[in-house]
Amino acid sequence: MTLDHTDPVGAIAEAAKAYSNWGRWGDDDVLGTLNFLDEAKRREGAALIRRGISFSLSQSFDMDGPQRGWRRRTNPIHTMLTTGTDAALDNQGFPHGIGGADDVITMPLQCSTQWDGLGHIFDHGKAWNGRDAEKVVTAEGDLVTGIEHMAPHVAGRGVLLDVGLVLGRDGELPDGFAITEEHLTATADAHGVGVGRGDIVLVRTGQLARVRREGWGDYAGGDSPGLSFTAAGWLHRTEIAAIATDTWGFEVRPNEFDHAFQPLHQVAIPHIGLLIGEMWDLDALAADCAGDGAYEFWLTAAPLPITRAVGSPVNPIAVK
């Protein structure tokens, strides 16, 4: 795909038409590309467990996170409801000396490691599968494609594409680096791994490693490496089930068009029906993959079944 940087509207319309999955799984579909992740694919993923070593791919959920208030997104606020102090003072009202602690957390569902659900992004008022956005997501939440529908399905063969290692300097890509189909293919070839139907693909850019050294800065919403808009065809053609990155916005920032905002989202979610993950911590997994040369693994990354939500926090677990 050749980009006219002055015409995001035309490019989005062209890609949406070329890569649409509307109607592919019927008019009532609520899973999108997760339909590619079937029982056989899960058996394939489970067979990749050899050593039994596991990796959490989640960032921390605490007040030291990256959020700066954009679109009212804040870092998690963790509050204790009852504590050991209450128990020691024996003011909890329980018999025979038993005590306990409870807590509560308040946070936007997209504030740290998370999935974007199918109701998260629209294109000209249309949601996934051609539905009218105003009939899908209301003040009551996502009435059709709520993230709870995906909760049983996100587990199978995971593939890491460490683009930062293969194409970057010291394992990191610079901000503004647009990852094309050619970059993804070259990385897969360098790792000796294939990518195809039903896979959950993880793309490491190395940006998270950099901000850990230098501070959050504009990690949440600022410039970053990420997928090029031209990779839309690869996302569609490979028939992957889901994709996640170690960046805030999945696609390259600044975006590749003048006066544009997240154009790849506008194609990938409402038209391809692709499950997108952001702010995943891939560094420890990447180091292990580089050490043993195996870039495929069992991955489970179920969203919380929050009824009618358009996204969800997640603690993905990769097992090798």
Automatic annotation (TrEMBL):
One of its GO terms (biological process) is L-tryptophan catabolic process to kynurenine. Gene3D superfamilies: Putative cyclase. One of its GO terms (molecular function) is arylformamidase activity. It comes from the Bacteria. This is Cyclase. It comes from Streptomyces griseoruber. The lineage of its organism: Bacteria, Bacillati, Actinomycetota, Actinomycetes, Kitasatosporales.
